[in-house]
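Quick bug: NAD(P)-dependent dehydrogenase (Short-subunit alcohol dehydrogenase family) output formatted oddly.
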Amino acid sequence: MMLKDKVAIVTGSGGGIGREIAVAMAEAGAKVVINDIGASLGGEGFSTSPAEQTKAIIEQKGGQAVINTDSVSEWENAKKIVQTAIDAFGRVDIVVNNAGILRDQIFHRMTPEEWLSVINVHLNGSFFMSRAAAEHFRKQESGSFVHITSTSGLIGNFGQANYSAAKLGIVALSKSIALDMKRYNVRSNCLAPFAWSRMTSSIPAETPEQKARVERIMRMGPEKNAPLAVFLASDAAKEVTGQIFAPRMHELFLFSQNRPIRSVHSESGWTPEKIAEVALPAFRANFVPMERSGDVFSWDPV
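Here's what came back:
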């Protein structure tokens, strides 16, 4: 019961990874706010059914949960979601920023609407939820944020400029929260999931290579991500903050973060020509390759 007496908000927990995290946190002793608007990945339709299904699973296992169907993409809604936890359970200890949508499109065809809708849910939503909970965390001098990022942002992918930008932005948001709120014993970490879910079902599977990649991903159920989320939210991780993790089947990864990897110095300063002549050859061997997530994580999960 690593989360006994704690209250967790899990956004986008009507299905997939969010549902598995919500259920696992309830099994670990937390009281859970299930937040989900019940819409498709394309934003069509609104239903309480997904959240009700998650609630039923939690209650069947002896846990406690309440439902909120507000969208995280609005500041006023984020405050309502946090207030749901306060009204139902008297406090809030954990926020899992999992809610997400997809609007995949090749960059030169991406519309402003496709860009903004994804940024609003993923990045703005993570800020709004974190900011709404921050006042409670600060006053009680405790709290844990678990933000869901993606290797699409950490490494890169085709056709996901909006999603990748949002997910990498979440990493910077998490680090800033970790730095700013450390004095209040508030922790903030990122989790980059590997799983077959609604969010990955749009991955192309046309070429033999693409089909092989999708087959690998389909072997990884969303439940594989829940144990790490529970750990990061628990007091067992009280010294862990500002980090980026990924669970992949039975593997766990700790990601590096941007640091200088090569430098050159010129006593007389630099001109564009001198950069081309001296700096470029010195840097070239250390350039980051043009890889996608599937290129880096190319082996079969075990």
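Actually, after a second look the formatting is fine. The domain at 7-257 is CATH 3.40.50.720 (Rossmann fold). Closing.
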